[in-house]
Design goal:
mainly alpha; two-stranded antiparallel ribbon; 16 helices; 51% helix; Protein OSCP1-like; OSCP1
């Protein structure tokens, strides 16, 4: 297992999350629902800017780039949920589950298709380029993204092909049990009904590689003695130029680009469930029931959250990214399970008295419910932002 895998995992999953949020928030702006919910285009921009600002801030990037073991799915989902809730938006459990499945399956597909291990960097750079395009009107965020990308270049470009292969194997092992069907992949015949991917047997070969179809034989002195051609079974082409590994440039590959930029809302639908997901268990075994209240209180104390007339009681706007009758039924079921588990919802909006009351509930039992100590430094870093 590689100790340098986590930064690429967070960057790529975070990029996919921002792609999905951008697509769904734009879809909301085009519907009549925004009138009913008090949601505006400016709110969507604020959500994107706030999340990007936390995700690419120097402290968070430096902490995530420390050599460390991979997180579990539960711990990683917890970190990404905290990241998604750094702004005024609050996602319900069902929306977060679906978004996590979309994020992970998209990145898993990109890993499976990258022709060489070093192309993981190009996939990451495509995600960074895509996020930079989403916030191109904000110079401060663009500078943050550029600085974060320079840190990634400094860390990963000296690595050997063997080290990149170890990173790729670590990522594939992390995603191996996930087989969620995604609408956009099914429509393009890129995924089978069982959730497995359709891997093409044709296309461009990596730069510097030869098109398959020729075997060379050498003698003990290293001299070429014979050639033999064979049928490769595919149609391959050579790439005339290498991709750019700089802050900007032609990445050559489209893996990691925003596949939702011209897609419909149906493309973000998922079907089936991954083995690591159990919604009832997530409600009862939430790693930190007070995490949302902590974030809301922190944002209030730091002055990063205004008072909205149309917000929920916890200080954030509730958003259903994937509204459907099935989701509403699921939410009602989860609400009943939530009451059965005895989870306390805290309205953390007043400074002194409320802060004292919340601090009194930070018991040892609450700490024991956390999935593991992994990610504590990252979560603490997010709390300080």
């Amino acid at each position: 297992m590689s100790l340098r895998t986590l930064p690429l995992l967070i960057i790529n999953l975070g990029g996919e999350m921002l792609y999905i949020l951008d697509q769904r928030l734009r879809a909301r702006n085009e519907s009549d629902e925004k009138i009913q919910k008090g949601w505006s285009e400016d709110d969507g921009k604020r959500v994107m800017n706030d999340i990007v600002g936390v995700m690419f801030c120097k402290g968070f990037m430096e902490e995530s780039m420390q050599p460390q073991d991979m997180y579990s799915h539960r711990a990683l989902r917890y970190v990404l949920t905290r990241l998604a809730h750094t702004s005024i938006m609050r996602l319900n459990s069902t929306s977060m589950d679906r978004m996590y499945d979309l994020m992970t399956m998209a990145f898993k597909y990109q890993i499976a298709l990258c022709p060489r291990p070093r192309d993981l960097l190009l996939i990451s750079f495509n995600h960074i380029d895509g996020v930079r395009e989403l916030v191109k009107d904000n110079p401060r965020l663009v500078n943050l993204i550029n600085e974060a990308q320079r840190l990634i270049i400094e860390m990963y470009t000296p690595l050997s092909d063997g080290e990149f292969q170890l990173i790729r194997q670590t990522l594939l092992a992390f995603f191996q049990d996930m087989h969620v069907r995604v609408s956009i992949l099914l429509k393009e015949n890129l995924q089978n009904a069982d959730g497995s991917f359709v891997i093409p047997t044709s296309g461009p070969v990596p730069h510097g590689s030869e098109v398959p179809g020729l075997i060379r034989y050498f003698n003990s002195r290293g001299r070429l003695v014979r050639r033999r051609e064979f049928v490769s079974g595919g149609s391959y082409t050579s790439i005339v130029r290498d991709a750019s590994f700089d802050v900007s440039g032609d990445r050559v590959t489209r893996l990691g680009a925003n596949m939702y930029s011209v897609s419909s809302a149906e493309d973000t639908h998922t079907s089936g469930s991954s083995k690591h997901t159990c919604k009832h268990q997530q409600v009862c075994d939430d790693p930190n029931p007070l995490a949302k209240a902590e974030l809301d209180l922190l944002a209030k104390l730091m002055g990063q959250m205004e008072v909205w007339d149309s917000v929920c009681a916890d200080g954030g706007m509730r958003v259903n990214l994937f509204p459907s009758d099935q989701e509403e039924d699921e939410e009602r079921r989860l609400s009943g399970a939530n009451e059965a588990c005895g989870v306390v919802n805290i309205q953390a909006v007043k400074a002194d008295a409320e802060l004292t009351r919340i601090a009194a509930q930070f018991t040892d039992q609450d700490e024991a419910e956390r999935p593991s100590d992994k990610g504590e430094d990252l979560l603490a870093m997010m709390d300080e932002l």
